[in-house]
Amino acid sequence: MTATPTSPRHSAPMIRGTLIPTLLLLAAVAVDQGAMAAEPAPLTFAGGEGPGKGKHIVFLAGDHEYRSEESLPALARILAVRQGFTCTVLFNLDQATGTIEPGNSNMPGLEALDHADLAVVFLRFQAFPKEQMRHVDDYLARGGPVVGLRTATHAFRTAADDAFAKYSFDSKVAGYDLGFGHQVLGQTWVGHYGTNHAQSTRITVSEAQKDNPILRGVADVWVQAGGYVGKPTSGTVLTVAQPLNGMKQDSPPDASKPPMPSEWTRSYAAADGHQARVFTSLYGASEDLLNDGYRRLVVNGCFWALGLESAITPQLAVGFVGPYKPNTFGDHAFARGIKPAMYADLASPIPANNITK
After folding, report:
1. 107 Cβ partners below 8 Å, 6+ apart?
2. To 5 degrees, how large is the angle CA 357–CA 77–CA 236?
3. What is the pLDDT of residue 21?
4. Rounded to two decimals, what is the model's pTM?
5. Pairing of the two strands 221-223 and 201-205
6. For 82, which of 56, 75, 122, 308 is 20 to 30 Å away at the CA?
7. What is the pLDDT of residue 119?
8. CA 87, CA 340: separation in Å to the nearest integer?
9. pLDDT digits (tens, 9 = 90+) for 268-318
10. The three-state (H, E, C) secondary structure of 77-138, written as one string
């Protein structure tokens, strides 16, 4: 299911008069080839028949806390197998071991964005090296549609002199203040509006938007992540979130916290001026995806962002593909020793192992 990594061909020039320079060059080439071969290929689930046939979605999983490295490959499998999209999932990887290390600002394979039809972004405080970040910049410049989840509102945090400083959540770059979250998703980082692990969240459909295609079949949405402050700068608010006093679906609402916007649609301007579609959700933690209503909401949001809203039905298949038993989210509390290839087999469990307490 995964692409095969390739290395460019190298050839040693003919050097007259001595064999040593040639041998040294060949040795350097061998080291270079070995290093390149060690970089794992992106995790890609090939699409097939379905409304997504011929469309490529690239998922960026790189947050410190909410286990996007578990939720996004599960979502990718659903969209590939159930709906026909080709789905590539990119992770923060340890350069030495090739294992997933959420939040480390190294995401090999971002060139997949160069030909992507949709980017699903679940990043937090990333500072990608220039050669990686330029693919994100190119994608946004051409106006690729975006689905942003949870911490994507503060996807990037860089120094003021970084080549792509404008994307930082606290950007002061003229014309691009407050960065990617503010300019693309409609909100940068604002703050919590509920206590993680003590207050779960009930999400309800806005009455004014009940006929919106993204909300077809969406009901009984309850997520385990605590509330976020929702203050979109523009767009159409689809849902509102009510913090609950407890971690059960029937926990009572917190009367001190009125509902806040939680999902919305909007657009951002590409370099040529055309408007690109955006679906933003302030939720999406590992265990949030266990809720059928929330999972359907995100799948529908992906369809809409791609301009495929006519294909959204209340019966759209959103069941998991393979076992999904996510770890409870926690800051830097991720399962160690997992390589992306462990998820290539559709029957393999996500996650590949549980966090050792």
Report:
1. 60, 62, 90, 91, 92, 93, 126, 128, 132
2. 95
3. 36
4. 0.89
5. antiparallel
6. 122
7. 99
8. 13
9. 999 999 999 999 999 999 999 999 999 999 999 999 999 999 999 999 999
10. HHHHHHCCCEEEEEECECCCCCCECCCCCCCCCHHHHHHCCEEEEEECCECCCHHHHHHHHH
Q: Quick one: 250 exposed, middle or buried, by C-beta within 10 A (0-12, 13-18, 19+)?
A: exposed
**Collapsed DSSP state (helix, strand, coil) of residue 209:** helix
Report how far residue 327's alpha carbon sits from residue 100's, in angstroms, rounded to the nearest whole number. 15
Nearest 5°: the CA angle 286, 287, 289 is 80
- Stated as kind and residue range, the H or E segment containing 242 is strand 236-243
**Confidence category of residue 38, pLDDT binned at 50, 70, 90:** low
Model confidence pLDDT, tens digit, residues 131-183? 999 999 999 999 999 999 999 999 999 999 999 999 999 999 999 999 999 99
Task: Kindly tell me the sign of the dihedral angle through the C-alpha atoms of 222, 224, 226, 231.
Answer: negative
Q: For residue 73, is the peptide bond before it cis, meaning its omega torsion is within 30 degrees of 0?
A: no
**Domain segments of the chain: what residues?**
43-190+262-343
pLDDT in tens, 214-257: 999 999 999 999 999 999 999 999 999 999 999 999 999 999 99
- Fill in the amino acid letter for 232: P
Helices then strands, counting H and E runs in the chain, come out as: 5, 10
Q: To 10 degrees, what angle do helices 292-305 and 68-77 make?
A: 70
φ/ψ of residue 91, rounded to 5: -130, 160
The three-point CA angle 220-242-227 to 5° equals 110
Residues 6+ away with beta carbon under 8 Å from 306: 52, 55, 57, 117, 118, 145, 277
